[in-house]
Amino acid sequence: MIKLYDFPQSPYCQKVRLVLAEKDLSYEKIFVDLTKNEQKAPEFLRLNPYGKVPVLVDEDEVIYDSTIINEYLDDEYPLPPLLPEDSGARARVRTLEDFADNSFTAQGGLLAAELRKPAEQIDQERVQRYRADLGRVLEFLERHLEGKEYISGTFSLADLALVPRLLQLPKLGVEIPSRLINVLAWSERVKRRPSVKQLQHDLGLA
């Protein structure tokens, strides 16, 4: 039985849960309460010395980092494939997934953290800057999606890496402009997938 050490609100955990759902894999979720610093407990640090979720345990294999976990899942459970066979195309998917993690998920996290502060402590200049950063990502995706259904052409790990923050954009006060027709079409396309619908339900967004 696969085990996933998970904190439900973590977009990186959500990214892994999406892949598990896409591959229709059964697994046990083990809740790690980050608000109580359970990720720093000695027993958890034996799994991941960095003290971060997610961690996936599959028989004798212990894997951490959402990107490495998802590539492992695609190697070990290849159907349906979420990485192309061609090495150049695989590299493009990996590059786009890295872009999603560092330019979309991370910036969204900074914005979410700022918005969680008491109203009188929120730095509106930061809020506008983070929202502008997310807007630039959407502009990039609009150009990149021209003539494509999905980020790398076929549905892949790159699309799934973008989904957790995509679902949170309304809560972050970020709207996809109507002129970004490629992004809007892609967004509707991915939201129709059962894995994404399940995540929306889990997050109370359905």
Describe this protein's structure.
The longest helix is centred in the middle third of the chain and has 29 residues, at 87-115. With 206 residues, the protein is α+β, with helices and mostly antiparallel strands. The chain starts with a strand and ends with a helix. Helix 1 (11-22) runs parallel beside helix 3 (66-76) and helix 1 packs across helix 6 (157-168). The chain folds into 2 domains: 2-76, Glutaredoxin; 87-202, Glutathione S-transferase Yfyf (Class Pi), Chain A, domain 2, CATH 1.20.1050.10. The chain is built from 8 helices and 4 strands, in the order E-H-E-H-E-E-H-H-H-H-H-H. Helix content is 53%, strand content 9%. A hairpin with a 2-residue loop joins strand 3 and strand 4. The mean pLDDT is 95. Strands 2-1-3-4 form a 4-stranded mixed beta sheet, with helices on one face.
Features:
2 domains; 9% strand; four-stranded mixed sheet; alpha+beta; Glutaredoxin; Glutathione S-transferase Yfyf (Class Pi), Chain A, domain 2; 206 residues; 4 strands
In short:
The chain is α+β, with helices and mostly antiparallel strands and 206 residues long. It folds into 2 domains: 2-76, Glutaredoxin, CATH 3.40.30.10; 87-202, Up-down Bundle (Glutathione S-transferase Yfyf (Class Pi), Chain A, domain 2). Helices cover 53% and strands 9% of the residues.
